[in-house]
C-alpha cells in the first residue's frame, strides 16, 4: 500500500477530508470533485466491495492496520496515516472510527435502467434529513425493495451521514433521481407501476387492504413524503391509492417517517 | 400566570434547565430532584395533558405567549421568560423551540399493574440510546402495543431526547422497569405471556409464522435486545420462540433496532 504519513492537518493532500460537519462546505466540495465520504471500517469495505473507485483512504495511527488485507484494492491510491489529534483537527470531531474513505461518485443510472425488472420501488419526495434517507435505504434494502427513486429535492444518499446510517445500503440498492418533480410520476405509471401514497390523512386505506389481491406480476411504487408535512398535494393527486399504516388511538398522531417506511416496505414485500 | 422575567443565566431559579446536553450532569440532577424535561410546545402540552405535575416552565421572549391558553394548568408554578441569548447560555444550545417544561416524575407502577389487561407488550433489554428508546415508544404507542417493560439497564424513557423523539408517547404508554434482569422474565411467563425473542440469528422463524394461529386471548411479549449485540444469551434461552423479520439477501445483515421494532409491533398487532 502507498502509505503516506502526514502530521499537518492543513496539508493540501488531506483536502477531501476537511470539516466533515460543515454541511455547506461539504456539499460544494463533494459536488466539485465528484466525491463522497465513507466512514467506518464496515462502510469503507462495502463501498469497495460494491465497486466504487477510491480516491484515497485516511487512517488514524491507532487503526493503521485496519485495512491491511485490502492492499490489492487500495494499490492505486494514497493511504494517509495521521495522528488522532490531526484527524480531529482536520475533520472537526473525534474520529473514533479511525477510518475514512474518499470515493469517486459514478453517474446516476437513468430511470428506465433502475426500474427495469423492479417490481417494488420506494419513491422519496422531499426527505430532507440525511439520517432519514440513510435509514430508509437500509430498511428498503434489507426487506427486499428493488429500487429507490428520489424527487429532485430529496437529500443526497451519498452524503456521509446517509451513507453511515444506511450501513452501506446506498451502495447496493439501485437508485436514481427524477429531474422533473411535477411530471416525474407519469413515467412510473406508464411503466405499469401502481402508485401508493403513504399518508396518515383521513380517507386513506390500510396498506394491507390496498394490496389485497395483488398478483405476482404487479408493480407497486410506494410514495413517501417529507418529514412533518408529508406528500405534496400534486403527488397525492397523482397517486392511484392513498394508503396508511393503521394507528391505535393513543394520542399519537403519526409514526416517524423511517418507522412508517420500514413497516410499509415490509407489508409491500409481504403482500405486494 | 406567574410570569417571572430573568436576564441572568446563572440565576439559581433556572437550575432545572442547566446544560441540557451534559448527560452526566443531567442524570444526577434529574435523579436528585425527581424531575424530567419536556422540550417543545407539543411535548409540554402532552406532559400536562397526561397529568404530569409541572415544576416550572421556561419560555424565550419571542415565544412568551406560546402557552397563554394554559394559565389554569400553570397557575401554581413559575413561568420563566428569558431572552434567547440567556436561554442558549443556560441550556447550552440554541433553544429554537422556545419552550421547556420541568416536570415532577411519578413513581413507576409495579409490573402487575402495567401488565393487567395487557395483551401485547414490548420488553426492552438494554437499549442504551435515548433516541432509540424514544423512537420505539412512539412506534409502539402509535401501533397499539399495550405496555413496555424495561430491563434494569435500559435507557431512561423520560430523558429529554427520549421524550422528544417519542413525541410524548412515553407519557401515555404504560411502562415500568424490572428490578431483576436474571429472573425478570419469569413473571411475564407466569402471567401467561408467550415470550418472542426478536433476533436475526440463524434458527429464528419469521414473526408472522410464529404468530400464525394466535387467538384473541393470547398474550405476547416481544423481547428486543441492545443495539449491535442484540439479546443476551440468558434472555434468548428464556424465550418461547426466536423470531425474525424476514430479510432479503442484499448485503444488509440486519435492520436498525427501531425499524425492526416498528415492523415487529405492526406484525404483533396485526396477527397476534
Q: What's the layout of helices and strands?
A:
Two copies of one chain form a homodimer.
Chain A: E1 2-5, H1 23-33, E2 35-39, H2 41-49, E3 54-60, E4 78-82, H3 84-91, E5 99-104, H4 111-115, E6 120-124, H5 130-143, E7 147-150, H6 160-165, H7 169-172, E8 175-177, H8 185-190, E9 193-198, E10 205-206, H9 207-211, E11 219-224, H10 233-238, E12 241-244, H11 257-271
Parallel strand pairs in A: 1-4, 3-4, 6-7, 6-11, 7-8, 9-11, 9-12, 10-12
Antiparallel strand pairs in A: 2-5, 3-5
Tell me the series of helices and strands of chain A, N- to C-terminal: EHEHEEHEHEHEHHEHEEHEHEH
Which stretches of chain A of 5+ consecutive residues score pLDDT under 50?
none
CATH fold label of the largest domain in chain A: Alpha/beta knot
Helix content of chain A: 25-40%
Provide the spatial order of strands within the biggest beta sheet of chain A: 8-7-6-11-9-12-10
Number of helices of chain A: 11
Task: Give me the count of strands of chain A.
Answer: 12
Keywords (chains A, B): Methyltransferase, Transferase
Family (chains A, B): Belongs to the class IV-like SAM-binding methyltransferase superfamily. RNA methyltransferase TrmH family.
GO biological process, one term (chains A, B): RNA processing
InterPro entries (chains A, B): Alpha/beta_knot_MTases, Ribosomal_eL30-like_sf, rRNA_Methyltransferase, SpoU_MeTrfase, SpoU_subst-bd, tRNA_m1G_MTases_N
Amino acid at each position: 500500500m502507498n502509505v503516506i504519513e502526514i502530521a499537518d492537518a492543513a496539508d493540501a493532500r488531506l483536502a477531501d477530508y476537511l470539516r466533515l460537519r460543515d454541511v455547506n462546505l461539504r456539499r460544494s466540495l463533494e459536488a466539485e470533485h465528484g466525491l463522497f465520504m465513507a466512514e467506518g471500517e464496515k462502510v469503507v469495505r462495502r463501498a469497495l466491495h460494491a465497486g466504487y473507485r477510491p480516491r484515497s483512504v485516511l487512517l488514524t495511527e491507532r487503526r493503521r492496520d485496519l485495512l491491511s488485507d485490502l492492499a490489492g484494492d487500495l494499490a492505486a491510491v494514497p493511504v494517509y496515516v495521521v495522528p488522532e489529534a490531526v484527524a480531529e483537527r482536520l475533520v472537526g470531531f473525534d474520529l473514533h472510527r479511525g477510518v475514512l474513505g474518499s470515493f469517486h461518485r459514478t453517474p446516476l443510472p437513468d430511470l428506465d435502467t433502475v426500474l427495469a425488472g423492479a417490481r417494488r420501488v420506494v419513491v422519496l419526495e422531499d426527505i430532507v434529513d440525511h439520517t432519514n434517507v440513510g435509514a430508509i435505504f437500509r430498511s428498503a434494502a434489507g426487506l427486499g425493495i428493488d429500487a429507490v427513486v428520489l424527487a429532485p429535492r430529496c437529500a443526497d444518499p451519498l452524503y456521509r451521514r446517509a451513507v453511515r446510517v444506511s450501513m452501506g445500503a446506498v451502495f447496493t440498492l439501485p437508485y436514481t433521481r427524477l429531474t422533473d418533480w411535477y411530471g416525474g410520476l407519469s413515467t412510473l405509471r406508464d411503466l405499469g407501476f401502481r402508485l401508493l401514497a403513504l399518508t396518515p390523512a383521513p380517507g386513506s386505506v390500510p396498506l394491507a387492504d390496498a394490496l389485497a389481491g395483488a398478483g405476482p406480476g404487479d408493480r407497486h411504487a410506494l410514495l413517501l413524503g417529507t418529514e412533518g408535512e408529508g406528500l405534496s398535494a400534486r403527488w397525492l393527486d397523482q397517486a392511484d391509492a392513498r394508503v396508511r399504516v393503521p394507528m391505535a388511538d393513543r394520542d399519537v398522531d403519526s409514526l416517524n417517517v423511517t418507522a412508517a417506511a420500514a413497516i410499509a416496505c415490509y407489508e409491500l414485500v409481504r403482500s405486494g
